[in-house]
Amino acid sequence: MANWTKYQFFLASMMLVTGSLNTLSTKWADNTKAVGIDDGIPRKFDHPFLQAVGMFMGELSCLLAFNILYFYRKKKDVPMELGDQTFNRLIFLPAAMLDMCGTSLMYVGLNLTFASSFQMLRGAVIIFTALLSVAFLRSRIRIYMWIGMMLIVFGLLFVGVSDVMFGGTSTGTGLNGIISGDLLIIMAQIIVATQMVYEQKFIMKYNVPALQAVGWEGFFGASVLGLLLIPMYYIHVGHPFSTDPNGRLENVYDAFAKMGHSWQLILAVVGNIVSIAFFNFSGISVMKEMNATTRMVLDSCRTVVIWVVSLSVGWQAFTWQSFLLQSFGFVLLIGGTFVYNNVIFAPFLVRHNCLRPEDEDRLSESEPGILFSVS
């Protein structure tokens, strides 16, 4: 860190700030009450699918950024890595559909549970990605990776127990809503893991620039989910999955009416779109300018920021019991992530001359990994 350039500090700061704002702005919108179109009673902004469309619009802007960067460098005669540009754009459609399902489930879950739990429970994606990679990519799970996965499982249990024991009075959804939200977030990680394995198996071979790949997934995701908002208006669900007076799964008219009555909602929704765009850009840039470990550390730091802000603004009630349980769960999650990604064992063995540096690099050649998705 002491050797970072000013540009690297800027990228790291951007990733930390925009990554935190992405979750916080979504939760801020969820907790903001405004008058809709039906009965004149202020209600919470319960529109997870519209928010997911906003997220895809943020990803779509990465495609615009890629093209601007391309034409700028072309004009300045500066070389730019374009990879293989002969690929069929439709290869991103399945990945976008998986992203759409996973993101929608997570946003519904976030509406029911805490922002800090949402961020921590997303760590389950490592477990599902590893298992699916073994089945479909013929990857090998090494001993230290199993240890990391076990630590993550125990960390998830502590976070879940904290929500069940001490979270029931902290939200308007009640204990059942919190449990449902937590389970939806974990279920969504199976879909996200499937997306990552698909990307690694079918997209990685084309050597598509990451910014361009994120942009195309955003294009397909925004297009399809935007169209699905129409039938969602006619689908009726019960509480706690909808607070709409008519029980609609998604009511776009009500969402825009609420935004028209609340500048806070406009700021939160726009903040979500802008933050996801800059977070994707900065996350990819951190990977290129520094390394995956730095990105992992910054991602862990944004979990702390989200947790602290949630407690500070009253989105999550503070009790010493829940704080200690979540703290211990968080430490296990971070520790498990570091162990799984070989940040601990291999450097320790190299430092003590038990492993050669070239062997350390060889360890990660067939390991399950994450490709484009950084949100």
From TrEMBL:
Its main location: membrane. GO terms for cellular component: membrane. InterPro entries: EamA_dom (IPR000620), EmrE-like (IPR037185), UCP036436 (IPR012404). The chain crosses the membrane at residues 49-70, 90-108, 120-137, 144-166, 178-198, 210-235, 263-283, 304-323, 329-350. Residues 1-19 form the signal peptide. It is a multi-pass membrane protein. Keywords: Membrane, Signal, Transmembrane, Transmembrane helix. This is EamA domain-containing protein.
